[in-house]
Design brief:
With 947 residues, the protein is mainly α.
Length: 947
């Protein structure tokens, strides 16, 4: 945008409101505002004046204007606004550019499909950049023509404006109220934490029209001019262009006190008026402008010079003449037409065949200059590219284009396949890239079909093996491991398959068998593949085989052997392994660490994979947040767990992971007595798709949450039958139900089912014998203690749980022991244990558990021994968790959310959630207030603010 010159008539109220929001942002309280109005009503002028005023006040201002043809390029608009192309880039911009390139996602099924949450990684990186800029000082983003913004940029903006209330950030966007801007309309029309302002521009009233005409004509308008101006319906652009055209035609008559027009003048259309100024340009200038209209609103002077083949000094003279005529605006490096109507008029004046030729010429020039492949591809899609150029160019850039603009890559590759010669040597590579583009876009069935068709007529065995892997990966990713297994076995039987390839296919067959639930056969095949891979010296296949063996061991009997197998797989993994496979192995290892209460190892591993997960996105970012949530949940840090759940659900994507995340939130909601919220989580609609092998590890979470809700709603019988049925089933994910044995024993005894209670206790003992983990030992002691009614065994369980630590489990075992002691007449001892249990429940906010414990002990004549003040405050400084207080201290130091995330080794989005919670609990509106409160509390002798 360029600085608006002159007085802006009729928009004083809108400018005053934006000025107020800028002042608030300077004070640390951010806002989002949207200026909405029809074309020509002054949206751009309002943004330009508001941006200039904000900059004068001391805000750092970044401005952006969407190009009309940018919808096909993910994050194109927001990338331009944040100046990712700055050279040399700072560290954060370099990081965002790396994530945007998406190299770590290439070839991962569905990695670039928005429906799977693939854009989450890029959005996360860009929001991190904005937060880092905000930490340097108050920031304002002025964003024009949002109706043409790409959907990825709009989605990122939605996340950004949802966080303005916790940042010194002003976001001001402008767009037309057109039907094609539904996503943008939702962005500007939905409430955003109370910090959203909608400014709807109306046509100028009669008084404002008269003032504008007087400004344009240097004196009041006469009656004929005023009557003609009525036809402009209060549109400032229409009125401005009308006066300019009348001046050029010398149709304005100046009187002593007024100006007027001849009686014969009629009102032309707005398009006619806007393009009227083109009549006065030389033919050579018009020719250059027509070429510029074809290149698009964002072309540079160098690109235009290359296409029109003009020396740069001559071109600069042409541009200067066009700027003087008001056709082009001064926008720095990029050429921009003063209004899109002018560009459209010039573009429509170019014959279709000539436009196609110019687009082709632009593509060639941009490619020779090393421009980004999506810039070249944009012109190729608009023209009639030469088959030779298209195919040759795609051979060099297909992979990069697929990671950056997968839809565009797929369209161009489809075009190349249609015009290419199937007998050419390079045609097979096009087929391969086409299938990979489908795979990356999430078109899994289409990718599988394309690869199968190509596989049937594969000219080269080596190339055919790559196609077979696409078939296998696509089938597996769309939840059909049986088809993936059949294809892997067919590959193993193929006579021309290389020995190494056969071993890798065998190892992946074990993965498919595991996903199908056939743990026995999966173990047999994985062991066989392990021996073959070791003999062949292939670490990739060996790592896959060890991963399956570790997972099988974990589901059957989680122990140190499962951990060691997973560690071996990680140690031997080759450097060339895909980042996605590396993260999958690491997150599986974290799962084992959490189950065995190896908290230090879990935290260390999560810290190592945080940044790679944020860069890759896809299923790995919500998986990372789920692992963090489980670790926090088991150790009693429930608010931290909920922060991780919120961050994980915001990533979108995988069904199994979303279900597991909601199950964690539902469990906490039940424990805290918020049963409707728990039910909402358990019944919420889920995204489609998921990895069946990953799902097996977490199926117990919604099962346990559902049974817990049943019990909380007094349907104990249904809770018990639900758990008992699951425990007896043969699905691999249901074998990971050792954590349920204490609940099963307790509920079985309540139902008078002694035989099954003994069976569940035996299963708990077997699990403890295998694993040796403190939590498993605690479960075994608790089950035996309940069966034998032995409080000493229950206290052994308490000791194990506390050392794990699993505070919720420890409090339940304390309650069990207290009840048994009371029944034997030891009321004083029982009261001590009850107090300890209630202290734990209160600290975590587990009001339902506290009520249950109190009720059980009251039935045996035990009441709480002391009436300590409750610690579960909902507001004020005392309500902050330990993590929130640490975050608040970093905020007081002036750290940005990304900096805090780096210091605490947690995700940026999780820090953002903590900041929102801090502001809510302290009833504050800005980080500045939080910093002031922290500083006040740190001063000795100064009383804290009264909450």
């Amino acid at each position: 945008m360029t600085a608006f010159k002159g007085r802006l008539v009729g928009r004083a109220a809108e400018l005053a409101e934006l000025s107020r929001l800028a002042e608030s942002t300077l004070a640390g309280v951010g806002h989002a505002a949207f200026v909405v109005g029809e074309a020509g009503l002054g949206k751009t002028a309002v943004l330009e004046q508001a941006a200039a005023a904000a900059e004068r006040r001391g805000l750092r201002v970044l401005q952006g204007r969407v190009q009309e043809r940018s919808e096909a390029l993910p994050f194109a608009f927001i990338s331009s606004c944040l100046r990712l192309e700055e050279s040399p880039p700072d560290a954060w911009r370099a990081h965002v550019a790396e994530v945007l390139d998406g190299d770590a996602c290439y070839g991962v099924p569905g990695a670039k499909a928005e429906a799977t949450g693939a854009c989450a990684a890029t959005s996360e990186a860009m929001i991190g950049l904005v937060e880092d800029l905000c930490a340097q000082g108050p920031l304002a983003l002025f964003l024009d023509d949002l109706q043409w913004a790409d959907s990825a940029s709009v989605a990122m903006l939605h996340k950004l404006v949802c966080s303005v209330h916790r940042l010194p950030l002003l976001v001001v966007g402008a767009h037309r109220p057109v039907s094609g801007a539904a996503e943008v309309g939702h962005l500007s029309g939905s409430p955003i934490a109370g910090n959203r302002t909608l400014l709807e521009l109306a046509p100028l009233d009669t008084e404002a029209v008269a003032a504008l005409l007087a400004d344009l004509c240097d004196r009041p308008a006469g009656p004929r001019l005023r009557r003609m101006a009525e036809g402009a319906a209060g549109n400032p652009l229409y009125l401005t262009e009308l006066i300019a055209a009348l001046r050029r035609e010398q149709a304005i008559e100046t009187g002593e006190n007024t100006v007027d027009i001849a009686a014969a003048c009629t009102l032309p259309s707005l398009t006619t008026l806007v393009t009227h100024r083109l009549r006065y340009l030389r033919d050579d200038v018009l020719q250059v402008l027509r070429v510029a209209s074809v290149l698009g609103a964002g072309c540079t002077t160098a690109e235009l010079a290359a296409v029109v083949d003009l020396p740069l000094p001559d071109l600069l003279a042409v541009i200067a003449e066009a700027e003087a005529a008001g056709v082009l605006g001064d926008t720095g490096q990029q050429l921009r037409f003063r209004h899109e109507l002018i560009r459209h008029a010039l573009y429509d004046a170019v014959p279709g065949s000539v436009r196609a030729m110019l687009h082709m010429r632009a593509a060639q020039c941009l490619a020779e200059a090393g421009a980004a492949p999506e810039r070249v591809g944009e012109h190729l899609l608009s023209g009639l590219p030469s088959p030779d150029f298209l195919i040759t160019w795609l051979e060099g850039v297909a992979a990069r284009l697929t990671t950056r603009a997968p839809d565009m890559a797929l369209r161009l590759l489809t075009m190349a396949l249609e015009v290419g010669d199937p007998t050419d040597a390079g045609y097979a590579d096009l087929l391969l890239h086409h299938a990979l583009a489908q795979l990356s876009c999430g078109l899994l069935a289409e990718a599988e079909e394309s690869a199968r068709c190509a596989l049937a007529k594969a000219p080269d065995p080596g190339w055919g093996h790559l196609m077979r892997w696409i078939v296998i990966q696509a089938a597996f990713a769309r939840g059909m491991p049986d088809l993936a297994l059949a294809e892997a076995r067919a590959g193993c039987r193929s006579p021309d398959v290389p020995a190494i390839e056969a071993v890798r296919l065998q190892a992946f067959s074990a993965v498919c068998l595991f996903a199908l639930g056939d743990l026995t056969e999966a173990g047999v095949v994985a062991s066989r593949a392990r021996r073959a891979a070791y003999k062949a010296g292939d670490n990739q296949a060996l790592a896959d085989a060890l991963t399956v063996l570790a997972a099988k061991r974990f589901l059957e009997a989680p122990d140190a052997e499962a951990v060691e197998l997973a560690r071996q797989a990680f140690r031997i993994m080759p450097d060339t392994v895909h980042p996605a496979q590396w993260m999958g192995m690491q997150l599986a290892l974290v799962n084992y660490y959490i189950a065995l209460d190896l908290g230090h190892d879990a935290r260390r591993t999560l810290a190592a994979i945080r940044i790679p997960a944020e860069r890759t996105g896809g299923m790995f970012l919500p998986w990372y947040h789920l692992a963090c949530a489980l670790l926090a949940f088991h150790t009693g840090r429930w608010d931290d767990a909920l922060a991780e759940v919120a961050s994980g659900l915001a990533c979108g994507g995988q069904e199994a992971l979303s279900r597991a995340l909601r199950a964690v939130a539902a469990s906490i909601a039940v424990h805290r007595g918020r049963h409707p919220l728990a039910e909402a989580h358990l019944t919420a609609p889920l995204p489609e798709g998921g990895n069946p092998a990953v799902a097996a590890f977490y199926e117990y979470l919604p099962l346990r949450a559902g049974a817990l809700l049943d019990e909380a709603q007094d349907d104990v019988q249904h809770a018990y039958s639900r758990l008992a049925e699951a425990f007896g089933s043969g699905h691999p994910g249901r074998r990971n139900l050792g954590v349920l044995t204490p609940d099963l024993v307790r509920l079985a005894l309540a139902q008078g089912d002694l035989a099954d209670a003994q069976r569940y206790a035996a299963a708990a003992q077997q699990c403890a014998d295998h694993s040796g983990g403190l939590n498993q030992l605690g479960d075994a002691y608790r089950c035996q203690g309940l069966l034998s009614e032995d409080p000493d065994l229950l206290m052994e369980a308490v000791r194990c749980y506390r050392n794990a630590p699993r505070p919720l489990n420890a409090a339940h075992a304390l309650t069990d022991a207290a009840e048994l002691l009371a029944r034997s007449g030891q009321l004083a001892e029982a009261r001590v244990l009850l107090d300890q249990a209630l202290d734990t429940f209160t600290r975590m906010g587990a009001v339902w558990d506290a009520a249950q414990a109190t009720s059980r002990l009251r039935a045996v004549a035990v009441r709480r021994g002391s009436h300590r003040p409750r610690t579960g405050s909902h507001g004020g400084w005392e309500a902050l968790t330990h993590t929130e207080r640490v975050v608040a201290e970093h905020v007081a130091e002036g750290c940005s959310n990304p900096e805090i995330a780096s210091r605490l080794s947690i995700a940026r989005s999780t820090v953002s959630t903590h900041v929102s919670s801090i502001l809510r609990k302290l009833a504050m509106t800005s980080r500045v207030e939080v910093a002031a409160e922290v500083t006040r509390r740190q001063k000795p002798g100064v009383p804290p603010r009264q909450d």
